[in-house]
Design a protein that fits this description.
- By secondary structure, the chain is α/β, with parallel strands linked by helices.
- The chain is built from 17 helices and eight strands.
- The chain binds Double cubane cluster.
- Double cubane cluster binds next to helix 5, helix 7 and helix 16.
């Protein structure tokens, strides 16, 4: 890609985390509480409506894992070990800045890790049901969302009004709509950027302190990328294999599969995982009871912890078609049983419904298998070009 073609508004997101840390300091000076969350199921609107600032503490790097393994079993998903390792080593400034932690009962590894983590900082656990269709599950989840509101009010000393919450629902929906508009610029040729360029943009939504500034930054980026696309500029050759990446969340430090796909000549036009579209695809209904609407929206998140998890199949099918992909790569983290088991059904759908080539990559945060993966990915892309 011609370097000049990358707009300033894109480069702006490369050091978003550092900018957020400065803003977090200011928020703390103004006595705002910082709330560390670990999952897409955490209703951020409630945290903000209480006057606090949510940040993601989902560990994406290898470095703290060895310390985590002194307490946790080595045969555990790297995302859990990394998140935990950052906490016990106090090497993540976002963890250090967090006054409260919010966990959720998604996968077994995470919920058992939280039992240890809660000894370190004030902790709130959301009990997530595993059904998205049983009315009793929605009732339970609504109750959990309400309890979290009470917890946040107690922690911050601020009463959350309906207007506060409604305001946050509108703001988060605005943010989600913008992220969707940016993501959908990749739906057809020419693609104005590569998947690697969009990773910091998508990840930045986990570290938003000043929401107005963030929304403005997304608007600038959408405008610049739209113009780039209209000008006919393409970040890759027209015949580059278009890949849909699904599976476990990734991020800066654990992006090796995304990077390898693009180094080998493919382009990741669509990331279905929680780093990408899964986290901003669903909007919260803006009319009616905000607690009901929040519960409904968050419970519909199509994570493999749910059974059945029809939403993920629907989303992958929709995205594969809308983004006109040539192949699907399902990347799972080792020992993430739910995504690993579900991979077989995603493969079935790719073969029998979508008629698309599919590859499952099960890996960890280390570089040990990088060259082996490169060979596999090269062969896969060659097969579909
Ligand atoms: S909504 S994907 S952020 S749980 S990769 S820790 S599932 S063993 S991260 Fe996730 Fe929420 Fe689901 Fe999204 Fe467990 Fe699997 Fe590890 Fe995972």
């Amino acid at each position: 890609m011609n370097k000049q073609a990358k707009p300033e508004s894109l480069a702006f997101f490369n050091n978003w985390a550092e900018q957020s840390l400065l803003a977090l300091d200011m928020a703390k000076e103004q006595s705002q509480l910082i709330v560390g969350a670990f999952c897409t199921y955490a209703p951020l609107e409630i945290i903000r409506a209480a006057g606090a600032v949510p940040v993601s503490l989902c560990g994406k790097r290898q470095e703290p894992i060895s310390e985590a393994e002194r307490i946790l079993p080595a045969n555990l998903c790297p995302l859990i070990k990394s998140s935990f390792g950052y906490a016990v080593t106090e090497t993540c400034p976002f963890y250090n800045a967090s006054d409260i932690l919010i966990g959720e009962t998604t996968c077994d590894g995470k919920k058992k890790m939280f039992e240890i983590l809660k000894k370190l900082k004030p902790f709130y656990l959301l009990h997530l049901p595993y059904s998205q269709t049983d009315p009793a599950a929605l009732a339970l989840w609504k109750d959990q969302v309400w309890s979290m509101k009470l917890f946040m009010e107690k922690q911050t000393g601020k009463n959350i009004t309906q207007q506060d919450l409604q305001h946050q629902i509108l703001k988060y929906n605005e943010q989600r709509r913008l992220l969707k508009s940016i993501a959908w610029l990749m739906a057809d040729h020419p693609v104005p950027v590569k998947g690697m360029d969009l990773l910091p943009v998508f990840e930045s939504s986990s570290f938003v302190v000043d929401m107005a500034r963030y929304i403005q930054s997304l608007e600038n980026l959408f405008k610049d990328l739209s113009e780039l696309k209209k000008s006919g500029f393409s970040a890759c050759p027209e015949n580059a294999p278009r890949i849909l990446l699904t599976g476990c969340p990734i991020g800066k430090g654990s992006e090796k599969v995304l990077r390898l796909i693009e180094e080998c000549g493919g382009v990741v036009v669509c990331m279905e995982n929680c780093t990408g579209i899964k986290s901003f695809d669903l909007l919260v209904e803006e009319q009616g009871d905000p607690y009901h609407n929040l519960a409904l929206r968050y419970l519909r998140t199509p994570c493999s912890c749910m059974t059945p998890n029809q939403g993920r199949f629907d989303l992958v099918r929709q995205l594969a078609q809308e983004f006109k992909v040539n192949g699907i790569i399902d990347q799972t983290w080792q020992f993430c049983h739910t995504y690993n088991v579900e991979s077989n059904s995603i493969q079935d759908m790719a073969a029998n419904t979508l008629n698309l080539p599919f590859m499952h990559i099960d890996t960890d945060y280390s570089d040990n298998d990088t060259e082996q993966l490169r060979t596999r990915i090269e062969a896969f892309l060659e097969m579909i070009s």
